[in-house]
Amino acid sequence: MDLHILDHRLRVTSISKSGLEQFTHPLIKLIFLRNRTRCKFFSLTETPENFTLVLDEEGFKELQPSEHLQVESSTWLPLNVVSNGNVSSSSQAVGVTKIAKSVIAPLAQQHVSVFMLSTYQTDFILVREKDLSVVVSTLKEEFSIYQEVEGESVPMRCQDVTNGLQKNGKEAIQPTVHPVLIPQNQFCVMSLDPDTLPSIATTLIDVLFYSSSPKEESPAQELDCIKFFSFSLIDGYISLVMDSEAQRQFPSDLLFTSSSGELWRMVRIGGQPLGFDECGIVAQISQPLADSDISAYYISTFSFDHALVPEEDIVSVTGMLQHHRKEPAAS
């Protein structure tokens, strides 16, 4: 398999719900006016707490400093696993499950924090730029590693990153086992031809900017269903994640999903905001799913992490994670 270090330098930011109106113009520009921005990597995810934006340096320039904008200090690089010359894998399981053992777990063991962004098309593993040498040293035995430079994939020489591996002799730190919440929403993972984006502009704007206000969401509602909507426009490909209620607002003939058209359920990770420095959070969820060959999409946000698993697997996943949470105490 090949591991590609993509030619994007990304920032991870958060916009508060109360401050969204200050960013309406740049967000509309980044989503709908591709010919007026040089941004090639843009992802916007709404959760009950805030809006998470992951975007490249060109897109980041569109955001004005504000008390409502939080910016994680690091620059992040997106990695992508390619097998058999295609981003999609022939493996039965899809999403982060395919890379749990080959990428996620080894990086966790080397104390590398990752930020995941699964889309309809592929899975992006974001790592801090300063951790790149450790990442390459950790994964070079398993992968042929390429770095994208101006659209060309250039083989990365291992000698460029010698001494990257953290041979510090420390025992692996047992990661915190975070609580999980399983809301009742059914979710869809879909795509859209970018040329038809104007056709859903009104609906998309309504869902993103007007569908709910912070005051409308009570703790009781949050336990039952959760507000979650994700839109990504990356290198010309669009990915959308929304619940089935939001999906009904869109024209059914424009959005497309996998041939099975399956629905997904969410596992939301974290009781308190997770932060960006803890390692092993993604591995904590993806490893048990990989062991059972259960597909999963995984979307990290500024405050919490979210895994999407097939609806028919939610009962077994719930039991599996409950068992997993008890293991550290039993050992």
From TrEMBL:
**Which part of the chain is the Cytosolic arginine sensor for mTORC1 subunit 1/2 ACT-like domain?**
178-259
Q: Which Pfam families match?
A: ACT_7, CASTOR1_ACT-like, Castor1_N
Give all residue intervals belonging to the CASTOR ACT domain: 75-141, 260-321
Gene Ontology molecular function, alphabetical: arginine binding; identical protein binding
The principal location of this protein is: cytoplasm
Q: Where in the cell is it found?
A: Cytoplasm, Cytosol
PANTHER family in UniProt: CHROMOSOME 1, WHOLE GENOME SHOTGUN SEQUENCE (PTHR31131), CYTOSOLIC ARGININE SENSOR FOR MTORC1 SUBUNIT 1 (PTHR31131:SF3)
Chain's role: Functions as an intracellular arginine sensor within the amino acid-sensing branch of the TORC1 signaling pathway. As a homodimer or a heterodimer with CASTOR2, binds and inhibits the GATOR subcomplex GATOR2 and thereby mTORC1. Binding of arginine to CASTOR1 allosterically disrupts the interaction of CASTOR1-containing dimers with GATOR2 which can in turn activate mTORC1 and the TORC1 signaling pathway.
Q: Output this protein's name.
A: Cytosolic arginine sensor for mTORC1 subunit 1
User: Taxonomy-wise, where does this protein's organism fall, top ranks first?
Assistant: Eukaryota, Metazoa, Chordata, Craniata, Vertebrata
